[in-house]
């Protein structure tokens, strides 16, 4: 057993006269990932714990060809259907925290209860980071970028006309239908300044809900905005990103080493998950080995390609710039000199 980073007495405050510890929580809202953009995929969920590191999903294509002339002088020709397979990658995660008995006893710090009570929200934050990585990797594909985005790479000041141009990327599709629009709060306040937002009060005493052209607005500052105001908004249909997670055997373990540092307790969690925009497939020319998948999406490589028809992708990206007065370092954007990928943690 290898205990690497251990919460010891040196990491804790040893009080003389001391109140109870306040169990701190990070301020991320994770509103984007909780907004319904993820759809629980029942097929994936049943296959995550099966052998292998990919999930193969066969499909049969629609009827091809054109009608032919019918007469009694020509035989009728038959046509054939075609099939294909799209793939999703499994991601294997683990996370563990540990603490010494001595450190907890001397300081009274409730390390164990903090770990156990906050683990579920930890996984939500991990999924939020992965969602943004998956979207970046999806739009790194040139075909998807052309078909399902506007202004990305050529960002200009936010405008209603450009936002509508982005929404036009769905064409006349009634299903999937865009219902929500996720953005950094800086973009929300600029839209409000431009009188682009309608507020609807769902019930007496209920909090008003903000809409743009019928799309409910979701604010989430995990959607990045750069110091120069460059950012993006995502319009999406419900469940447009397929998602599943499963707990393997021994997914939650509390283990002890009575000798290490006078007694150490570790809490370990493991899981298997998959996340991918519906209508995309893995581009094996980019991810040649399964083991490189995680790093490839974190690096924003064009990991995904259109599986069959780009019209079926239920998400659209609009790239633009927010005016400088709405960009606030350490509030909705990182410090200019910070390398921390989670400034609110």
Helix/strand/pairing category: alpha+beta
Please state the overall shape, judged from the principal axes of the Cα atoms: globular
Order of helices and strands: EHEEEHHHEHEHEEEEEEEEHEE
- Percent helix range: 10-25%
Count every helix, treating DSSP H or I runs of 4 or more residues as helices. Answer: 7
Percent strand: 25-35%
Number of E-state strands: 16
Total number of domains: 1
Provide structural commentary:
This protein has helices spanning 42-47, 101-107, 111-139, 142-148, 160-167, 185-193, 293-298, and strands spanning 38-40, 54-60, 83-89, 91-100, 149-150, 180-183, 198-200, 209-212, 215-219, 230-236, 241-246, 252-257, 264-277, 280-282, 304-306, 315-321. The protein is of the alpha+beta class. The chain has one domain (28-44, 86-326). It starts with 37 loop residues before the first strand and ends in a 24-residue tail after the last strand.
Summarize the structure in short.
Helices cover 21% and strands 26% of the residues. With 345 residues, the chain is an alpha+beta fold. It starts with 37 loop residues before the first strand and ends in a 24-residue tail after the last strand.
């Amino acid at each position: 057993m290898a205990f690497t980073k251990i919460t010891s007495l040196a990491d804790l405050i040893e009080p003389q006269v001391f109140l109870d510890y306040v169990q701190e929580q990070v301020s991320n809202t994770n509103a984007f990932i909780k907004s319904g953009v993820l759809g629980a995929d029942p097929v994936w969920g049943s296959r995550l714990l099966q052998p292998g590191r990919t999930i193969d999903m066969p499909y049969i294509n629609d009827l091809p060809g054109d009608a032919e002339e019918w007469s009694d002088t020509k035989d009728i020709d038959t046509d054939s259907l075609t099939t294909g397979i799209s793939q999703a990658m499994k991601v294997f995660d683990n996370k563990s925290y540990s603490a010494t008995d001595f450190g907890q006893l001397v300081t009274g710090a409730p390390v164990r209860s903090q770990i156990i009570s906050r683990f579920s929200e930890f996984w939500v934050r991990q999924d939020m980071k992965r969602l943004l990585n998956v979207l970046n990797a999806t739009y790194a594909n040139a075909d998807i970028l052309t078909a399902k985005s506007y202004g990305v790479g050529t960002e200009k000041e936010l405008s209603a006309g450009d936002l509508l141009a982005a929404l036009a990327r769905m064409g006349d599709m009634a299903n999937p239908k865009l219902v929500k629009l996720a953005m950094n709060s800086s973009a929300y306040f600029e839209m409000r300044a431009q009188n682009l937002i309608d507020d609807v009060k769902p019930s007496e005493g209920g909090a008003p809900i903000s809409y743009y052209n019928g799309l409910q607005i979701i604010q989430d500052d995990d959607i990045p905005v750069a110091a120069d105001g460059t950012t993006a908004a995502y319009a999406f249909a419900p469940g447009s990103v397929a998602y599943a997670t499963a707990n393997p055997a021994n997914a939650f373990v509390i283990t002890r080493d009575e000798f290490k540092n006078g007694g150490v307790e570790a809490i370990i969690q493991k899981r298997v998950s998959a996340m991918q925009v519906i209508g995309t497939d893995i581009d094996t020319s980019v991810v040649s080995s399964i083991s490189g998948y995680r790093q490839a999406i974190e690096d924003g490589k064009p990991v995904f390609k259109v599986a069959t028809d780009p019209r079926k992708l239920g998400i659209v990206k609009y790239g633009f710039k927010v005016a400088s007065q709405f960009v606030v370092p350490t509030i909705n954007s990182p410090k200019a000199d910070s390398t921390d990928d989670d400034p609110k943690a």
